[in-house]
Design goal:
Elements (H helix, E strand, L loop, with lengths): L1 H11 L9 E2 L5 E5 L4 H6 L6 H12 L8 E4 L6 E3 L6 E3 L4 H18 L3 E5 L1 H8 L6 H4 L4 E5 L2 E8 L2 H6 L3 H17 L2
Amino acid sequence: MLEQLNEEITNKFNDRELVLGDGKVDSIVMMVGEAPGAKEIEQKKPFVGSAGKYLDEFLSTIELERDKLYITNTVKFRPTKEGKRPGTKTNRAPSKKEIEEFKIYLFEEVDIIKPKVIVTLGNVPLRTILDNESASIGNMHGKPISVIIKGAKYIVFPLYHPAAVIYNRELKEVYLDDLKQLKAFLKNI
């Protein structure tokens, strides 16, 4: 089923370089990021750039192996804008339209994977999964939330995006505390 979904996404967005979900299809944990960056496009795999290095470090902190997870993004292509130097591109947040274009596919992925826990990494996946534009990672991080997707109940565990720690070092302790909460939560499911 996942192969069919990936083929459908690839056919619909054949004008864009895509990074599809990756990992264990029967995982109990599904991690959802915002969108791929340059390294992810290059390697065709989510979370392999600098944010991926932080994610790997944090996963090791809570003794969760990346190859036991399923990792995807809300938007499957790299949203860019003109960089400071002419001819360069830099990442930008996906637009509402771009998020809406991919939302149905994200929900299909959830329905196929059927994880026990969906870990959202940042505001974009949190708002998309909860279908709530006013949801805020600052208010909801580290606390499990119930959500219904395609008629099934899931637990969402919001975390800051790993890149947030790159830009705001003060978040590292908060992030580590949230990871400890996640580790304890996963032991009880």
